[in-house]
Specification:
about 280 residues; 8-stranded parallel beta barrel; alpha/beta; homodimer; TIM Barrel
């Protein structure tokens, strides 16, 4: 982990919603403090688990500002900013940097299918050029099972060469363990590589990863943190088993339901369509 | 075709771009007039072929306003308004209606994978309720190979029951011919069903479709129009053969390249990343 700026267990926070399905800032603020108390080194705002793409650009900006206004430390945040349109990605990225959050997690444009490596390189380059800010710390968000666009070693290599220190990391949420290990080995010295699941964490750390950004940290951060701190086989097995409960379910709704049970606050059950709540409110 | 409000050959227009990759309104205006001269009954603005999801909400609103300011008849337009976030879909839909274009073509939210029928119903219902305008004429945009979310008969049936005349049609761009025929037969009397490819057009018309919205109308509308006007086997074969050239290529870039050749305007070659131009500008 020598020289890694971003390491450890980061939680892609759930986004609690009020009865109008708008983000519920008081509930979120409570959750973020609790996550840090549970051992998370930091928070990813607006990852897939946070239902990022169900919110407008304005809603996303307002929530980040709201969190920071509560006194939350911006250096504990990575902000998801990758949208389908470059204009939206650039707008969210500039806003995050202006608010003291230079670390952004960027999906490739995810509407088109069969996108070429060149197309992905062009899209990221266009966005980084338009942001035009040396403070930028860009994290690739690799999640091909959801975005349907891969981020290959060739894409990363080309952008590292073109933009140097602006390229800070990779969140690798691919479910293909072998390709994750290949990218950890290849880029672990030059980038902060955080894997998207604790299932791979021990092996990924051995291959050069600096940590993980995992949805289940919303409910069981201490187990993941223990694995990160002492990556033994036993710790890995324990974390893998603890995760299985959620892998078998619709993850986001299930994590919200678990949080509703823990906090005894049924508002936590709410999701934005097209997701469906794990159980009706009031049950 | 008795009683169909929207029928015939509609063209999902390409979006020409200037050197800053912003929409080029003069080129687009020329293209729209030419398409109507070529026999298109109307235009779909911001379909997949128009690179809709590569533009921000503001860019999309501005372009619609620009087109209408040139005197283009709003009743010749269907406007694509479906985004990942309901707020964006609602904002674009309200804007289209306010500008005299009540017919909107709406993708389901397309980031999540494995979305349930209930989730899709919830998402569309939420959007239609929020638009809250009886002038709305809602067209489902079924294109599962791109959006990764299907629009099933159960989804359509539920929303028809819930919203009645606000549900006006279906653009069915599925590549699965059999499912297209099933939906044409089931909904052809109650909705304007337009298929997404002229390859299915003769058969779809026999099954109750009212027409098609096909990307290749950007370059060969007369062939598609002839098939619509006289749906013989020969006309179908001719249209299918003419389309094959483009099916074999990256469709949007290829259609833009063909338009650049026809108009001798190289600006037409430009696409927004992650698409890649068919050949470099200047060649």
């Amino acid at each position: 982990m020598n020289g890694h700026v971003t390491s450890g267990v980061w939680c892609p926070t759930l986004t609690p919603l009020d009865s109008a399905l708008e983000p519920d800032l008081p509930l979120l603020t409570e959750h973020l403090s609790w996550l840090l108390d549970q051992g998370c080194q930091g928070i990813v705002l607006f990852g897939t688990t946070g239902e990022a793409n169900s919110f407008t650009v304005e809603e996303r900006k307002r929530l980040l500002e709201g969190i920071l206004a509560t006194g939350f430390a911006p250096d504990r945040l990575i902000v998801g900013t990758g949208c389908c349109s470059a204009g939206d990605t650039v707008s969210l990225t500039k806003h995050a940097i202006a608010n003291g959050c230079p670390r952004v997690l960027v999906l490739p444009p995810f509407y088109y299918k069969g996108v070429s490596e060149q197309g992905t390189i062009d899209a990221f380059s266009w966005e980084i050029d338009a942001v035009a800010d040396d403070r930028l710390r860009f994290f690739f968000y690799r999640i091909p099972q959801m975005s349907a666009v891969d981020i290959t070693a060739a894409v990363i290599e080309t952008l590292l060469e073109r933009f140097g220190p602006l390229i800070a990391g990779l969140k690798d949420s691919s479910t293909d363990r072998e390709s994750v290990e290949v990218l950890c080995r290849r880029f672990g010295e030059r980038l902060d590589v955080l894997v998207g699941s604790e299932r791979f964490l021990k092996r990924a750390l051995e291959c050069g990863a600096s940590g993980c950004i995992t949805a289940t940290a919303n409910v069981q951060a201490p187990i993941v943190r223990a694995l990160f701190d002492s990556p033994s086989d036993e710790a890995q097995q324990r974390a893998t088993r603890a995760r299985e409960t959620y892998d078998a379910l619709s993850m986001i709704a299930a994590l919200k339901a678990a949080t509703a049970r823990r906090t005894k606050k049924n508002g936590w059950l709410r999701v934005r369509p097209p997701l469906v709540a794990a159980s009706p409110l009031g049950e």
